Amino acid sequence: MDDPVDIEQLQVLVKHHREHLGLSLRAAAEESGVPFNTLARVEKGHLPDLANFRRLVLWLGLSPERFFQPSMFRVENTPEVIASRLAQDPNLTPAAAETIADVVRELYGNLVLKDREVTVHLRAAKTFTPDAARLLGEILVEIQERLQSGPTGPRHVM
Q: Which of 11, 110, 135, 157 is most buried as measured by Cβ atoms within 10 A of its Cβ?
């Protein structure tokens, strides 16, 4: 991979942030601490040096890791692909794109299929009757069956 930094994403976000703040290139350069010529080149799709990249990322209020493309050996992570696309959307502010990306990450994490079995260990107690243990076992089996059948599986009320 020749260019490990997603310069297109940086270009879009820098320009959008500057325009959102209503700043000229000169004013944005002064506010961000990045030289005017460097900022102009970034908005044209050129990669800044490391020090100016750091200043721009701080000015945008984002993590530098956001701009690094995944290695060729890494499997794409759906929520991060979505976050990357949202960040490139000119109709969204960087903060709005990040908010939507956070919601997607959370929903994805909650709804992704997990191939894990749940194991419950109960301690014997005088108040835990055999009937209660049997009923709890039946409930747990039914919950496991529903989880394994996925979101399109049969639904019924207990």
A: 11
